[in-house]
Predict the 3D structure of the following.
Amino acid sequence: MIKFDFTTYVDACIDQNTKKELMTKKEKIDKQLNESTMNGWMDRIDENLVWKIKETAAYIKNNFDCLVVIGIGGSFLGSYAFDQMFKCYFNNKNFEVIYAGTTLSSRYLDELVNYLKEKNFCINVISKSGTTMETTITYQVLKDLLKRKYDENEWKRHIIVTTDQEKGKLREEVNQEGYPSFVIPDNIGGRYSFMTPAHLLPLAVNYHIDEIVTGYNRGKRLDNYAFEYAVVRNCLFQKQKMVENFCVYEENMQPFTEWLKQLFGETEGKEGKGILPTSNVHTRDLHSLGQFIQEGNKILFETFIKVEKSNHYIDYNGMDLHTINNIVEDSVMRAHFSGKVPCIEITLQELDEETVATLIYFFQLAAAYSGFLFGINPFNQPGVEVYKKEVRESLGA
Ligand code: PA5
């Protein structure tokens, strides 16, 4: 279960008439969303596809020691964030999954190649366009390693591709080499692709994807909350609150805030508009950005993601440490609010796979609503293309 509080530490900071007026736009914006050609992420995933994903995950686990997932941006952050949230901090017993493809660091790739030399690894390369530079380079380097290690009949068994159904270099390669492959549908953009094989296959290796699917579908019931969240953010923006700081109280949720930054940053940041997403992990960052937030330039509002219950018990002087963490969270909200920083609160009853999948749908929907409220297309990212073009020209590619 997820609870939302968009009022306690917000109402005093927004114009209630603006909120009322924006709230009346839901029907119109739902219509825009329903008519969009990029709303495939709102559909139910096909059961046969879920079955095929599970079967492929079993193939990976039965035949290899390690899965290397290669992707970037929306083709990587969802499953990475989810995995980081649920795997153990220490002595992790999960099947080994390495996420690569997000850097051009030669040191990183060199060390990865050395590490994989002795491993019986398999690759899942994920790219909707099939042309993304970081993904392409990492894939090429690891494919070369496979070719050095195995003969032609063998190395091809180590590659699984997730890409567009028809277009792009990766699809051409699949057609030529006959690797197993999955499709990122045309009507789903990268950052909205959590409920596609791009994320479900890497996750199926270690997690119950039926629970993830159930949780995600449950998110559809939260449309009113998602709309109110989008409206409140817009009202805050109109009060010069240009930055949204996502706050989490579990270290392992930090990558989830990276997913949120990408979702909202690429969705809203265009035509000179949008709210800049940032994040804090508490209580760590209370000892750095905390000062700015409390007393600095009043450009921010915050969205706290709280986890009500924990199944880990640590006694501190007769008190459960998780309770202390939650008390600190409430205190921080009050303190920041007293420093004129509005705070939205989203409370997860528990941090489990189903609830997080529900939260993912909620945020995707809120981001889409928010884009329409800003009057921009929530589903493109023309700005990202600008740097890609510069790079292509510089490299003569
Ligand atoms: O959200 C998006 O659309 C982007 O972040 C893309 O996912 C990212 O640029 C990777 O693109 P591709 O999947 O084409 O490699």
